[in-house]
Amino acid sequence: MMNITYGEAKISNSLRISILLKTAYIQTYAVDGITFEFANLITEKFSDEQIKKNIKENPPRLIVAYYDNNPVGVADIIFNSNCPIRNIPVPQLGKLYVLEKFFGKGIGYGLINEAEKKVLQNGFNSFNLEVYINNSKAIAFYKRQGYTSIGSVNLPLETNTYENLIMNKVL
Description:
The chain is of the alpha+beta class. Helix content is 35%, strand content 31%. It has a seven-stranded mixed beta sheet. Helix 4 links the parallel strand 4 (92-98) and strand 5 (126-132).
């Protein structure tokens, strides 16, 4: 049994969190290799500077799973989000990434539970997420956690557009 702990992200761990996010994103989405569009996205979105900014602006936003004091998973809560389907304020799980080596060990489950607790503590009773429509593993995981699809939206990047499911859970 692995000893996994969970806690809010600390600025001192921003570089390691940045690398974790980039690695997990590549493991999941680089099915055609590293395109320029892909490289630009992860370089900007998951930079050490961006992670530090997110932690400074909203400390409870990032929840980190640690194994032996090393980050192995991250959940990102966007509290000031509007549901694109229902057009109402609903916090959104911006990302839930676990390093591939740690799949199947309950870490994703632990992260989503911690995120749901934070959402409830902040006075919300509903939680949304967006997931790429072709990410069947993630969709199955979220369904097992009680999330249901309420529609889809398009995510435009530089030259491509990707369809994402919007899933919701009443907490």
